[in-house]
C-alpha cells in the first residue's frame, strides 16, 4: 500500500489494471451463467470452460511481440480502447441466446484475452524501469492483492447486476466495456510518464526452437540459483499440478449443476466457491512472513498435491462439501505466497529485451497442461461426476509422489 500511495507510475499502472480486471471479472462469471441458460447447458459450460484456454497457445508469440513493441504505454492505452469496443459489441448481441451468438461471443473473448496478455507484457518493462528492485516483491504482492479483490468485487457486482436487471447479460457486458474505457482513460491522462528503456530491434530471425532453448536455459539458471533443485523435475511437477488446478474449477462448474450447496442458486454457489478461493489467496498474500512463506517452492508443491488428492477423495466419497471447499481455500492460501515471489525473481534477473517473452515462456510451460486438464475433466464431469473426482484424486496422488521425490533431492 505504501508503494501504491507514494509511487505515481506504479499507482497509474495499478489503477488501470484494477479497472481492467474489475470489468473482466464482472463478466467472466456471468459468461458461465449465460452458458448455463442455453439449450444443453452442460455442452455450453464445457465450451465456456475451454475458451479461456485458447489464448495460452499464443502466449509466447504475444510475449515476443510485446518485447519488440515501441511506445508501450501508448499501445496499452489503445488495447484498452479496443477491448471497450469489443465488449460493446458483446452487449449488442448477447440478448440473443443462441449457439451462433454464443460462438461469436467466445471468439470476442479469445481476442480480448489475447489483448490482455499483450498489455501485460507491455506493462512489465515500464515497471522494471521505474520500480526499484527492493520494491518489486511489494509491488507484485499488492498487485496480486488488488487482483483478488477485483475478483471478489467483480463477481458480486456481476451477480447483483443480473439480479436487479432481470438477467440482463447485455447490461453486464456494457458495464464491462465501461471499465475498459476507464482503464484506457487513466493511461491517457498519465501517458507522458509511461516511459521505458529504448527497445532494441534485432533484424536477425531466431528459429522458434532455438529461442525456446535459450529461454529454457535462462529459466533453468534462475531456478537452480533460487531453489537449488532440478528445474526439469520441478517443471514436470508443476505441469501436472497446473492441469489439476485448472480442472478443479471446471469440475465445480458442472458439479454445482447437480449438487446443491447450502440451498444456494447455481450463480450464488459459483460465487461462494470463487469467494472461498479468493479469501484464501488474499490471506496468503497478506502474510508473507509466516511458516509457509519461508518454505521452498518444492515444499509448497508437495502440500498442494496432497490437498488436491484430499479434495478429490472427499467429493468422491460424498463428504460434506464444506470440507473440500476448506481445502481448496488452503490451496489458494499457498498460491498467494508463491506467485509474487516468482514474479519478483524474474523481474530482478531478466533483461528488458526478453522480459515479456521470458515471462510468457514460463507461463506457457507452467500452463501447458491446462487445456488438457480442463478438457479431460470437463468431459469426465459431463459423463459422470464421480468418475471425474476419482481420476482427479488418482492423478493428485501421482503428482504427490512426483513432487515428494523432487523435494527429496533438494539441498
Automatic annotation (TrEMBL):
<feature type="transmembrane region" description="Helical">
    <location>
        <begin position="322"/>
        <end position="340"/>
    </location>
</feature>
<feature type="transmembrane region" description="Helical">
    <location>
        <begin position="296"/>
        <end position="316"/>
    </location>
</feature>
<keyword id="KW-1133">Transmembrane helix</keyword>
<keyword id="KW-0812">Transmembrane</keyword>
<feature type="transmembrane region" description="Helical">
    <location>
        <begin position="76"/>
        <end position="94"/>
    </location>
</feature>
<feature type="transmembrane region" description="Helical">
    <location>
        <begin position="261"/>
        <end position="284"/>
    </location>
</feature>
<dbReference type="GO" id="GO:0005886">
    <property type="term" value="C:plasma membrane"/>
</dbReference>
<keyword id="KW-1003">Cell membrane</keyword>
<protein>
    <submittedName>
        <fullName>MFS transporter</fullName>
    </submittedName>
</protein>
<feature type="transmembrane region" description="Helical">
    <location>
        <begin position="18"/>
        <end position="37"/>
    </location>
</feature>
<feature type="transmembrane region" description="Helical">
    <location>
        <begin position="386"/>
        <end position="404"/>
    </location>
</feature>
<feature type="transmembrane region" description="Helical">
    <location>
        <begin position="169"/>
        <end position="190"/>
    </location>
</feature>
<feature type="transmembrane region" description="Helical">
    <location>
        <begin position="100"/>
        <end position="120"/>
    </location>
</feature>
<feature type="transmembrane region" description="Helical">
    <location>
        <begin position="43"/>
        <end position="64"/>
    </location>
</feature>
<feature type="transmembrane region" description="Helical">
    <location>
        <begin position="145"/>
        <end position="163"/>
    </location>
</feature>
<keyword id="KW-0472">Membrane</keyword>
<dbReference type="InterPro" id="IPR036259">
    <property type="entry name" value="MFS_trans_sf"/>
</dbReference>
<feature type="transmembrane region" description="Helical">
    <location>
        <begin position="361"/>
        <end position="380"/>
    </location>
</feature>
<feature type="transmembrane region" description="Helical">
    <location>
        <begin position="231"/>
        <end position="255"/>
    </location>
</feature>
Amino acid at each position: 500500500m505504501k508503494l501504491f500511495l507514494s509511487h505515481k507510475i506504479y499507482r497509474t499502472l495499478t489503477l488501470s489494471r484494477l479497472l481492467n480486471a474489475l470489468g473482466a471479472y464482472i463478466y467472466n462469471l456471468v459468461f458461465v451463467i449465460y452458458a448455463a441458460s442455453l439449450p444443453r447447458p452442460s455442452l455450453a459450460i464445457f465450451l465456456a470452460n475451454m475458451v479461456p484456454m485458447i489464448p495460452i497457445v499464443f502466449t509466447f508469440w504475444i510475449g515476443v511481440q510485446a518485447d519488440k513493441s515501441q511506445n508501450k504505454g501508448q499501445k496499452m492505452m489503445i488495447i484498452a480502447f479496443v477491448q471497450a469496443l469489443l465488449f460493446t459489441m458483446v452487449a449488442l448481441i448477447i440478448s440473443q441466446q443462441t449457439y451462433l451468438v454464443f460462438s461469436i461471443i467466445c471468439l470476442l473473448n479469445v481476442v480480448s484475452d489475447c489483448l490482455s496478455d499483450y498489455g501485460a507484457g507491455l506493462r512489465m518493462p515500464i515497471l522494471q524501469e521505474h520500480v526499484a528492485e527492493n520494491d518489486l516483491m511489494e509491488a507484485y504482492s499488492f498487485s496480486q492483492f488488488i487482483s483478488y479483490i477485483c475478483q471478489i468485487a467483480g463477481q458480486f457486482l456481476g451477480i447483483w447486476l443480473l439480479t436487479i436487471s432481470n438477467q440482463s447479460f447485455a447490461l453486464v457486458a456494457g458495464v464491462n466495456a465501461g471499465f475498459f474505457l476507464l482503464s484506457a482513460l487513466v493511461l491517457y491522462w498519465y501517458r507522458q510518464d509511461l516511459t521505458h528503456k529504448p527497445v532494441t530491434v534485432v533484424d536477425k530471425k531466431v528459429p522458434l526452437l532455438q529461442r525456446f532453448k535459450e529461454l529454457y536455459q535462462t529459466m533453468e539458471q534462475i531456478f537452480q540459483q533460487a531453489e537449488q533443485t532440478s528445474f526439469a523435475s520441478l517443471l514436470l511437477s508443476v505441469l501436472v499440478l497446473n492441469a489439476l488446478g485448472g480442472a478443479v474449477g471446471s469440475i465445480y462448474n458442472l458439479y454445482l449443476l447437480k449438487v446443491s450447496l447450502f440451498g444456494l442458486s447455481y450463480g450464488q454457489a459459483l460465487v461462494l466457491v470463487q469467494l472461498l478461493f479468493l479469501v484464501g489467496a488474499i490471506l496468503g498474500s497478506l502474510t508473507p512472513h509466516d511458516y509457509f512463506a519461508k518454505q521452498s517452492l518444492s515444499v509448497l508443491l508437495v502440500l498442494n498435491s496432497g490437498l488436491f488428492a484430499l479434495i478429490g477423495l472427499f467429493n468422491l466419497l460424498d463428504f460434506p462439501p464444506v470440507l473440500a471447499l476448506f481445502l481448496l481455500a488452503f490451496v489458494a492460501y499457498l498460491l498467494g505466497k508463491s506467485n509474487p515471489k516468482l514474479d519478483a525473481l524474474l523481474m530482478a534477473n531478466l533483461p528488458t529485451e526478453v522480459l515479456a517473452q521470458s515471462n510468457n515462456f514460463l507461463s506457457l510451460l507452467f500452463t501447458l497442461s491446462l487445456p488438457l486438464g480442463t478438457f479431460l475433466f470437463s468431459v469426465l464431469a459431463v459423463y459422470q461426476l464421480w468418475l471425474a473426482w476419482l481420476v482427479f484424486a488418482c492423478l493428485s496422488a501421482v503428482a504427490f509422489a512426483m513432487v515428494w521425490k523432487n523435494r527429496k533431492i533438494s539441498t
